[in-house]
Amino acid sequence: PFDLIVMVAAASIEELDRVLDDIGLIEGVERTTSSIILSTRIRR
Questions:
Q1: pLDDT for 41
Q2: Helices then strands, each counted (H, E), the chain
Q3: Of 20, 15, 42, the residue nearest 33 (C-alpha)
Q4: Separation between Cα atoms, residue 4 and residue 26, nearest integer Å
Q5: What's the pLDDT at 21?
Q6: Closest by CA position to 35, among listed 18, 14, 20, 15
Q7: What's the pTM value of the predicted model, to 2 decimals?
Q8: What is the pLDDT of residue 42?
Q9: Cα separation of 36 and 9, whole Å?
C-alpha cells in the first residue's frame, strides 16, 4: 500500500467535491481524507 498527498485548488466547494469523487473512483484508492485550508498566515 502507498500513501499519497495531493494538493488541489478548486474554484468552489462543488468543484472540490467533484474532484474528490473522481479521486475516489480511481482503481486502488481505498479511502480519502481531505482538509481545507481557508488562508495561510505567516507572522514574522
A1: 80
A2: 1, 0
A3: 20
A4: 13
A5: 96
A6: 20
A7: 0.71
A8: 82
A9: 10
Percent of the chain as helix, strand, coil, to the nearest 5: 25, 0, 75
Q: Which domain holds residue 10?
A: 1-44
28: DSSP letter: T
The residue assigned the cell 482538509 is 35
Count of domains observed in the chain: 1
Q: So what's the pLDDT on residue 6?
A: 93
Low-confidence ranges of the chain (pLDDT < 50): none
- Residue 19, judged by CB atoms within 10 A of its CB (0-12, 13-18, 19+), counts as middle
pLDDT at 10: 94
